[in-house]
Amino acid sequence: MSGRHQSPKTENQMVFVTVGSTFFDALVKSVDSQQVKDELRKRGYTNLLIQMGRGFSIPSKSSGEDGSLAVDYFTFSPSIADYMRSASLIISHAGSGSIFETLRLGKPLIVVANEDLMDNHQIELAEVLADKKHLFCATPQTLHQTIRTMDLGSLLPYPPGEALPIANLMSKFLGFPPE
Q: Residues in domain Glycosyl transferase family 28 C-terminal (predicted)?
């Protein structure tokens, strides 16, 4: 069932970025870089909304009126579900809750590995799902290349099922807080 995800074609296409409750300034800085913004714009995306969590890196806001990407950000929200539902593309940290919620919604996903974390078993989960063509994996340094070369039509739907309880159990077992 390839071809589930198509490139953006309508006027307002949002990319939603989430770092969850973590500190992941490398991801925030990466998506705020001109290189990543240019690649997103070339792909037809018009808006970039960044949930920056506990980080200190403040993204550059822009209205997008000059033809550039419109950028906005916030730290936390009681629920990011509405943002995820309205996104055309989601870029996320490797939290199992964020990954499985995005896959459940059927949204194209780029998982960005936080290389500063020791023993990050969540990255292993993301790599397995990438091998199965359910998502793309990147690092903050390779995110722009992943956006440039990603073929959204190559992604396969994740089999339905309620994965969040399993993901939270895995996180608890591995010593990570549930999402």
A: 14-159
